[in-house]
Design brief:
This protein is mainly β and about 150 residues long. It has one domain: Sandwich (Immunoglobulin-like). Helices cover about 0% and strands about 60% of the residues. It has no helices and eleven strands. The strands form three sheets. Strands 3-11-10-6-7 form a five-stranded mixed β-sheet, with no helix packed on it. It has a four-stranded antiparallel β-sheet with strand order 2-1-5-8, with no helix packed on it. A hairpin with a 6-residue loop joins strand 1 and strand 2.
Length: about 150
């Protein structure tokens, strides 16, 4: 059996080559845009998984579902046959930019399943997108997200 220990949404994850330690840079909870539609910049979802009561390699599938304030859902990331070999294992998922048509509370829902079972929710990561004036020197284009 596998369980999610924690999940975090950030703008970057750096892995130290010598130690394998991971640093999660600029955790993200809020964003702002002067206009809608707007595009989220690339995000990273960092996760830690625990393998429970098993000495053998476990396999799972992981997906990340984007949920809008009006509850529209779309799968923005999916990977099958992820092997969990260690008692504790970190996994980082690099997500493409995603367009939103609404201001308000969005979610990135981390889900997983094992052995053909149904999808289970491991974590719900809220992301609030507010209408915000962005200083010209920070805006790369109309409709691009910036940290609020």
């Amino acid at each position: 059996m596998i369980r999610n220990v924690w999940s975090v949404m950030c703008s970057m994850a750096l892995t130290d080559k010598e130690t394998g330690s991971v640093s999660y840079i600029r955790c993200v909870e809020y964003g702002g845009s002067p206009v809608i539609p707007a595009v989220f910049p690339m995000l990273v979802v960092g996760t830690m998984w625990e393998k429970i009561d098993s000495d053998r390699t476990e396999t799972m599938a992981v997906r990340i579902v984007f949920v809008t304030p009006s509850k529209a859902e779309s799968t923005i990331f999916l990977i099958d046959d992820v092997e969990v070999n260690l008692a504790l294992q970190k996994m980082n998922f690099h997500l493409p930019g995603v367009q939103t048509e609404e201001f308000g509370r969005h979610e990135l829902r981390v889900e997983y399943k094992q052995s053909g079972a149904h999808w289970l929710t491991a974590a719900i990561l809220p992301l609030y997108i507010n209408k915000a004036a962005i200083p010209p020197h920070l805006a790369t284009s109309q409709g691009a997200m910036a940290d609020a």
